[in-house]
Write a structure and sequence with these properties.
By secondary structure, this protein is of the alpha/beta class. It is built from ten helices and eleven strands. The strands form two sheets. Strands 3, 4, 5, 6, 7, 8, 9, 10 and 11 form a nine-stranded mixed beta sheet that branches. A hairpin with a 2-residue loop joins strand 1 and strand 2. The relative contact order is 0.15.
């Protein structure tokens, strides 16, 4: 059995489309299709049901997927063993993260990692969405909920807090609310509800049952900038908001608490570059853990 053919199979299985898998692997569609057909001929069975909208695994394909992933794990282990030491810290590691944490905290700090390992390439994808590790959308994912499903290696990064904020210009014009009920008389900023990618982001109900945002943005950074502009009151990450002198924390007794976790697929456990990046993330957060605590 040709290992390259197995790699092609894995990419198609994870993408759900031959065309998407071909683009990811940098080959043309015909080559990919030919290699998968060669694997099917070797195994003596059909692995995919092809359609105009994509492809799905057959029963044989589903059974073979488990074996192919075990083969992948062994190959990763061999590659890691043959590349022990500093030379093993090469290649690309993609980190998927919520935009607030990715932009405000990770982006200014990851350069130190690439300085330590010049042959390492970091791809940071700080967007408000979840990432599929099984489909290799990211090598390491930062999540805001403890992963409960999948063959994952995960660990807690840190707890963090959020609070109510408004700009000094907004408060000068509309007054400072002194009770939760007062919030009903103010413009409120929140998430686009049908684009909330994690239940943990649906925290407005913890403060006001009907938040009723007049300005909804599906981005933590976007919400911060909207509050800074004077558009209304928002629930912001304390570690982000405290960097802006034009923001004021209101109703300081109200604090929401969440956590960040790191996760990567257990097949990547053998990769020195993934382990190195995961440990670096733990180290930089541990070194500045105090900034994630509630604002004074």
């Amino acid at each position: 059995m040709n290992w390259d053919d197995v790699r092609f199979f894995l990419n198609v299985a994870r993408s759900g489309q031959f065309l998407a898998a071909a683009r990811k692997m940098g080959v043309n569609h015909a080559t990919l299709s030919r290699r998968v057909s060669a694997l099917e001929a070797t195994l003596g069975c059909q692995l995919f049901l092809r359609s105009t909208t994509g492809c799905t695994l057959t029963e044989d394909g589903t059974r073979f997927l488990a074996s192919a992933e075990r083969m992948e794990t062994e190959m990763l282990s061999v590659q890691s063993d043959l590349g022990r030491g500093d030379a093993a810290i090469t290649g690309t590691v993609r980190i998927g993260a919520p935009d607030g944490f990715g932009v405000s905290f990770l982006a200014p700090r990851l350069g130190a990692l690439t300085a330590l390992h010049p042959d390492l390439t970091i791809e940071l994808v700080p967007v408000p969405r979840s990432f599929s590790l099984s489909q290799r959308e990211a090598d390491i994912a930062i999540t805001i909920e403890r992963p409960e499903q999948g063959r994952l290696v995960f660990s807690k990064l840190t707890d963090y807090s959020l609070g109510l904020y408004a700009s000094t210009s907004y408060l000068a014009s509309y007054g400072v609310p002194t009770t939760v009920e007062d919030l009903k008389d103010h413009r409120r900023i929140g998430y686009v509800e049908d684009l909330i990618f994690s239940p943990s982001l649906n925290y407005t109900g913890e403060i006001l049952r009907d938040w009723g945002a007049s300005f909804a943005i599906s981005s933590a950074i976007g919400q911060t900038e909207a509050v800074r502009s004077g558009a209304g009151i928002g629930i912001l990450h304390d570690y982000i908001a405290r960097n802006h002198g034009d923001l004021m924390r209101i109703l300081p007794s109200i604090s929401i608490h969440r956590s960040y976790w790191t996760a990567f697929h257990e097949n990547a456990r053998q990769l020195a570059r993934v382990r190195t990046v995961a440990q670096f993330l733990q180290d930089i957060v541990a070194g500045e853990r105090s900034i994630f605590s509630p604002a004074a």
